[in-house]
Amino acid sequence: MQTFREEVIRLLLPHVPLEEQQISEDLETPPNPALGDFAFPCFKLAKEKRQAPPKIAAELVASLAGSELFERVEAKGPYINFYCNRKMLARLTVEKVLSEKGAYGQQQIGAGQNIVIDFSAPNIAKPFGVGHLRSTVIGHSLYRLYEALGYRCIGINHLGDWGTQFGKLIVAYLKWGNEERLQTDPINYLYELYVRFHQEAELDPQLDEEARSWFKKLEDGDQQARELWQRFRSLSLTEFKRIYQILDVEFDSYSGESFYNEMLDETIALVAEKDLASESEGALVVDLSEEGMPPCLLRKQDGATLYATRDLCAAIYRQQKYNFAQMLYVVGADQALHFRQLFAVLRKMGYAWADKCVHVPFGLIRYKDGKMSTRQGTLIFLEDVLQRATELAAKIIEEKNPGLVNKGEVARQVGIGAVIFGDLSNDRIKNIEFDWDKVLDFSGETAPYVQYAHARICSILRKAADWPGDYDASLLTTDEEQAVVGMLARFADTIKRAATTYKPSVMARYVVDLAAEFNRFYHQCPVLTAEGPLRNARLALIDAVRQVLVNGLYLLGIAAPEEM
Ligand code: ARG
After folding, report:
1. Does the Cβ of 327 fall within 6 Å of ligand 1?
2. Is the CB of 260 under 6 A from ligand 1?
3. CA 83: distance to chain centroid?
4. How buried is 556 (Cβ within 10 angstroms: 0-12 exposed, 13-18 middle, 19+ buried)?
5. What angle do CA 461, 466, 467 make, to 5 degrees?
6. Is residue 426 located within the same domain as residue 542?
7. Does some domain include residue 48?
8. For the segment 19-46, what is each residue's pLDDT rounded down to a tens digit?
9. Which numbered atom of ligand 1 lies nearest the CA of 123?
């Protein structure tokens, strides 16, 4: 589409008092292909030309030079509609996809720039719940989307490996701990201890006091506290890494909250130096009343630091280390105030780069009535979800395609794909009602639907093993063929839109639409039984669809099995 877009701009430029950039921004993609592939609105020109926009559109059309890239250019009301030359569009698009392959859709907008993406960040000694799934899959998809735009991405897992909960856990472990259970099933066991601590602390508030003092010991470097913490941390991390492996997610850094321990004093000193810190009931805070927010707490009365202190320190550290063009925090919407406070403090400190920090919030996963709570033990474990989804996929494969080789692997790809897609296809900011039936529903607009279209194309292409690969895509001019071509041509724009709005759901929508468009085409237009050159052209078209489905699913973090 880029070639066509540039041509529209080239045609318009001599006739309108606008810069290239402005024309490009004003160009719209009509919602209905009957209105053309591009529409240029003439409202802006009305003032200068002192004419009604429809009149301007009509006159402008008459003065435009002809172009072989467009078969029609028409004025329609206040718009000028450009209709791509079908043959050219099909030829340029299919050739581009098939020559660029996995790189099709990639852009250079971000070349030479860094983007830090802070995502996943589960809390040590707590199970990896479906709540952290959201951050993980959204963050991972944004990582791949920005990479496709040419940025260098730095994925950081800001592990929750520090804080008062470790005081609680140490108390619980020292009181009720069982070494053997810790060895055999660390996460579940630590979680049990955590839940038990909260139950017992309800009856005996003294426990909270003990927990606070153990955390203080930990912060002060007490050896016993350190050793326990270290064990809890490494046992948890091993479990988390297993889940990341299942999800095919990687990080460039696992520097979590504890990483900043040694730098916190310095950070607090820096805040004090800028005259921003004040005492409040023995605690150290940054007043944010001017910004209309509660104060940001940096140090408690007992000297302990907080989540916010560590985030402040981390932001400054990362800016120095990565000099980022943007830093995205993919964290639940319930932490919106925390990030507004953090960014406000950075701004008060005089860091202009505070404006490059973005909180990318998402809705919570709700469980029956109310929020999931780690404390009450109502958390759904991600591993259970993934396992159940995989089992269901295996069962369906067993019914539909028992002869499939590699059944286990495909079931995994389909089951996990369904879970990831079930999350990403939601508008990021909406809350999700966690519903087993929905997560495991493979019909309708789901990953398995898209994966199935892909596998189907692979199967058709296997049957066409006689095709030497030559084609003339300009034969693809029917409405069904053009609808598919049009979708393929919009892939790069879709990547850009999904990335810049931080919405993987845009890409999820796209792959479903492309699969649906392929199905419509395949229903109407024979491929294997078509004649000679048309057969070749259609094979090339579906091969291009196959490639773009692979690329699109990759950007979502989902695999595309060739058979299922
Ligand atoms: N561990 C935190 C949680 O589970 C998320 C951390 C997000 N990243 C950050 N830099 N604050 O709520």
Report:
1. no
2. no
3. 33
4. buried
5. 65
6. yes
7. yes
8. 999 999 999 988 888 899 999 999 999 9
9. 1
Count of structural domains, the chain: 3
How far apart CA 201 and CA 137 sit, in angstroms, is 35
Q: Supply the CATH number for residue 452's domain.
A: 1.10.730.10
Residue 349 Cα to ligand 1 middle (Å): 22
438 lies in the same domain as 547: yes
Q: Got the DSSP string for 275-332?
A: T-EEEETTEEEE--GGGTSPPEEEE-TTS-B-HHHHHHHHHHHHHHHH--SEEEEE--
Residue closest to 563 by CA, chosen among 465, 450, 452, 464: 452
Q: Are residues 416 and 552 in the same domain?
A: yes
550 HSE (CA, 13 A, CB side): 19
Say which CATH number the domain at 11 has.
Answer: 3.30.1360.70
Please give the model's pTM, rounded to 2 decimal places.
Answer: 0.93
Q: Ligand 1 center to residue 474 CA distance, Å?
A: 52
Of 206, 236, 266, which one is at a domain's C-terminal end?
236
* Atom 9 of ligand 1: nearest residue by CA position: 158
Is residue 177 in a domain?
Answer: yes
Does 52 share its domain with 175?
no
Q: Minimal CA–CA distance to 447: which of 293, 310, 564? A: 564
Report the pLDDT value the prediction gives residue 379, as an integer from 0 to 100: 63
The number of the ligand 1 atom at minimal distance from the alpha carbon of 335 is 12
Last residue of one domain, picked from the residues 207, 236, 265: 236
CB-CB contact of 502 with 117 (8 Å): no
Same domain, 445 and 548: yes
Question: Rounded to whole angstroms, how far apart are CA atoms 226 and 215?
Answer: 10
Pick from 291, 258, 262: which is nearest to 276 by CA? 291
In short, whether 118's Cβ falls inside 6 Å of ligand 1 is yes
Flag whether 285 is in a domain.
no
pLDDT in tens, 43-93: 999 988 899 999 999 999 999 999 999 999 999 999 999 999 999 999 999
Nearest CA to ligand 1 atom 6: 121
For ligand 1, pick from 316, 331, 346 the residue to mutate: most ligand atoms within 8 Å of CB.
331
- DSSP-based three-state secondary structure for 153: strand
- Judge if the beta carbon of residue 123 lies within 6 A of ligand 1: yes
> Taking the CB of residue 68, how many other CB atoms lie within 10 A of it?
9
Q: What's the per-residue H, E or C state across 342-403?
A: HHHHHHHCCCHHHHHEEEECCCCEECCCCECCCCCCCCCEHHHHHHHHHHHHHHHHHHHCCC
- How far, in Å, from the CA of 71 to the mean position of ligand 1? 53
Query: How far apart are alpha carbons 315 and 240 in whole angstroms?
Result: 24
Q: In this predicted model, what pLDDT tens digit does every residue of 128-166 receive, in sequence order?
A: 877 788 999 999 999 999 999 999 999 999 999 998 889
Give the Cα separation of 80 and 73 in Å (integer). Answer: 7
Does residue 113 lie in a domain region? no
Domain range enclosing 191: 164-236
